[in-house]
Amino acid sequence: MHESPTPRSEPPQARTLRDLRESGHTYRTVKAEIRENLLARLRSGEPRFPGIVGFDDTVLPHLERALLAGHDLVLLGERGQGKTRLIRTITTLLDEWTPVIDGCEINDHPYAPACVRCARLAAERGDELPVAWKHRDDRYGEKLATPDTSVGDLIGDVDPIKIAEGRTLGDPETVHYGLVPRTNRGVFSVNELPDLAERIQVSLLNVLEERDIQVRGYNLRLPLDILLIASANPEDYTNRGRIITPLKDRFGAEIRTHYPPTLEDELALIRQEAALNWRGQDLGETGGVAADPPGLSAELPDHLVETIARFTRLVRESTAVDSRSGVSARFSIAAAETAAASAVRRAALTGEERPVTRVCDLPGIVPTLRGKVEFEVSEEGREVEVLAHLLRRATAETFRGTLGGMDLSALLDKFSEGIQIQSGELTPATELLHQIGPVNGLAKIMSAVGMGEGDESPGHAAAALEFALEGLYLMRRLSKDEVDGGAVYRT
């Protein structure tokens, strides 16, 4: 889940070392860039880490202290807590453009050539040394630690092609640089560091302390200018591996992350990420999520976003769920997308003009999300039952918070006439409204669940009324019979 790319400005005009000096450019290390730019944002009140939700008073102060101190760091937290997302936002603290020696594999600064090739070129060309400009988005490197990762992948190895071209073994220019030196003068992230074999972790010791790399038997000492960040899951320390003690000691800071601490943070996260993943647009006054897959769009009203957020939090707190594994933020995002997709499917099959997600679309998320949750052994075979129960609880809590104090007698009076109302994931909104008929106070019900001006379509009305019906059932004021693909509400 990435931020929308910000428009790039034009790079500076300097194209040679002479131009660069005449422009007044000063050289700063990566950590100095980040420190000074972070301080500028702190003083101005600008957002320091755009798109990060729920960490303002907990994680971010620790992160800011670590960056101001110039520390490499480890982010420690359960899956789906936004560790990778947070790491990637750190690149926004880099200068937008930085000069490099044109053609350098490891991004040497024109004032301080480090590799053999650039040192030779600088001696030959002098003030005519060619300069290129690198955008901060291109100064980020990332490696998912896997058991098959090699030292060559991270640090480098001999390039047999260069040797075949006639260079001698031992020539430093026969080295093929790995991911870490290729991210020189940038930010490099190792995701899930404990999964990296211990003998491979050793190769990072020099990077963190001596700030250089060693490649096989070469007399090669390349000073690296890099901010190294790792992420890890606490469970990994015992289940899949560990971070070796000398490496842990070289990181300047260990920062714990967490899931959204409040319901409001959970709601903000779902709205931000589900809309982003589906290329949605903010719905303005309603605050709902607009999902926009090719050809169709579906709206996810506020009351259903809240239901999904409450559902996610109840699953995290459930004693039936293995708390050590955690429940990822991707759980709620996938739930929102799946519910919206159900409305899209209904529209495609029934011809609804404007699909709006309804309560009947929520049960379909349970089997979809089952694989995202690790249950306690004692709950084996009851996974779907547990999730369905928690979804009903979440729906009831949302109903109490939105419509619980409202007079719904006009809707209940419909059932005193002996009617039964059938709904389901393939029941069009117009058909559901036809079964219910006119309801006094419908506008107040819609307003209470977050539907404002512009939400007068049959889909919105059906979504509000069906939520009210489900709430009345959960409050035991109506009965409900489960039927194939839906439900029948009655007295």
UniProtKB/TrEMBL annotation:
Annotated protein name in UniProt: Sigma 54-interacting transcriptional regulator
Taxonomy, superkingdom: Bacteria
Region (Disordered): 1-22
Organism whose genome encodes this protein: Sphaerisporangium corydalis
A Pfam family this chain is assigned to: Sigma54_activat
Cross-referenced InterPro entries: P-loop_NTPase (IPR027417), Sigma_54_int (IPR002078)
Domain named Sigma-54 factor interaction: residues: 175-234
